[in-house]
């Protein structure tokens, strides 16, 4: 991998350490791959055959799947009763988009937020998203606003989030702000209210990925800082898809081995539903296949589950088709890697 660094990481910097006392000491953020077990290889082969058959033999079926998802999507009128905290007058300005709001029943609640008014109820525009306790748990969220950056870092600390996946630029090609610079990685130590952020290292990896190791802590706390791997993919266009699946699969390779016990993986773009939902669906599907959960072959059901937890996850047909492409490409890669090590399904 070609790598350039504004801060050269040491040997110990390649491991990102979580501050949760119940968590393992570290996880490896490099791209080391272990051979699949015989069972995993069989699961991947069966899944690959299924996904390729749909894509190659009945592409219209895939489009019909997305049409089914769209026909059953949550309507804006249904959000009024399900998003009451987000719609509260104290919280309304904390939403980047007024039609992308977290549901009351699975929203992320800040235990101690900067807005101490009880009626604010620890609000942040973020949702817990998951299909199984056996695979990665996600927090899907919007790109922070200038006045919600401290809330964002409160969430990272409180829920011991080991990884942030950022799937957007700060400003798009039309000069529209998609996300505030909530990390300011090149500016040295910096404060967001009661929280201090510092950068241990920055790497520019292949496929346009930018990797940052950030340390986060409360200013007055005696606790060691929480180390967070920040992975940014700025080349994924809003409402669109990348030209190929390489960068998205590299993100998966780097973070798929993070134990769920470390805390949820935070994924955001601008609204936190299109690119965010697409990545979560890819990551979740491959992980479930690897543990033998073949219900993961039902991508409609996976995205339906995600949409029941955050409105609009996977926004466009192109994003849905990209899920198929990335899953197929990664399954092929996993099988090829294992076969090169002498395993056969």
Automatic annotation (TrEMBL):
Residues 248-321 form the Tyrosine specific protein phosphatases domain. Keywords: Cytoplasm, Hydrolase, Phosphoprotein, Protein phosphatase. GO terms for molecular function: protein tyrosine phosphatase activity. InterPro entries: Prot-tyrosine_phosphatase-like, Protein-Tyr_Phosphatase, PTP_cat, Tyr_Pase_AS, Tyr_Pase_cat, Tyr_Pase_dom. Its main location: cytoplasm. SMART domains: PTPc (SM00194), PTPc_motif (SM00404). It comes from the Eukaryota. It is found in: Cytoplasm. Its EC number is 3.1.3.48. Residues 62-330 form the Tyrosine-protein phosphatase domain. GO terms for cellular component: cytoplasm. Pfam families: Y_phosphatase. It is an enzyme of class 3 (hydrolase). This is protein-tyrosine-phosphatase. The gene is LOC105159523.
């Amino acid at each position: 991998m070609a790598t350039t660094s504004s801060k050269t990481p040491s040997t110990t910097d390649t491991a990102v350490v979580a501050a949760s006392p119940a968590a393992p000491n570290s996880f490896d953020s490099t791209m080391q791959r272990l051979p699949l077990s015989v069972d995993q290889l069989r699961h991947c082969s069966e899944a690959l055959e299924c996904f390729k058959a749909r894509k190659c033999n009945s592409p219209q079926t895939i489009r019909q799947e997305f049409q089914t998802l769209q026909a059953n999507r949550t309507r804006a009128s249904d959000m009024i009763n399900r998003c009451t905290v987000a719609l509260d007058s104290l919280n309304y300005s904390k939403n980047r988009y007024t039609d992308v709001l977290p549901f009351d029943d699975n929203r992320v609640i800040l235990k101690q937020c900067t807005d101490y008014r009880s009626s604010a109820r620890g609000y942040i525009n973020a949702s817990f998203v998951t299909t199984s306790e056996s695979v990665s748990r996600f927090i899907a969220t919007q790109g922070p606003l200038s006045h919600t950056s401290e809330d964002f870092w409160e969430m990272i600390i409180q829920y011991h989030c080991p990884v942030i996946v950022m799937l957007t630029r700060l400003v798009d090609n039309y000069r529209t702000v998609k996300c505030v610079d909530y990390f300011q990685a090149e500016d040295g130590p910096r404060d967001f209210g009661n929280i201090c952020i510092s950068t241990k290292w920055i790497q520019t990896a292949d496929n346009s990925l930018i990797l940052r190791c950030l340390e986060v802590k409360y200013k007055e706390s005696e606790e060691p800082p929480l180390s967070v791997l920040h992975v940014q993919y700025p080349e994924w266009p809003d409402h669109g898809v990348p030209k190929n699946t390489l960068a998205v699969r590299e993100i998966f390779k780097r973070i798929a081995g993070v134990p769920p016990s470390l805390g949820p993986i935070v994924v955001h773009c601008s609204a936190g539903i299109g690119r965010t939902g697409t990545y979560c669906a890819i990551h979740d599907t491959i992980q479930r296949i690897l543990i033998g959960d073949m219900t993961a072959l039902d991508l409609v059901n996976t995205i339906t589950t995600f949409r029941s937890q955050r409105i609009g996850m996977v926004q466009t047909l192109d994003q849905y088709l990209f899920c198929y492409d990335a899953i197929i490409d990664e399954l092929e890669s996993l099988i090829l890697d294992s076969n090169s090590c002498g395993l056969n399904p």
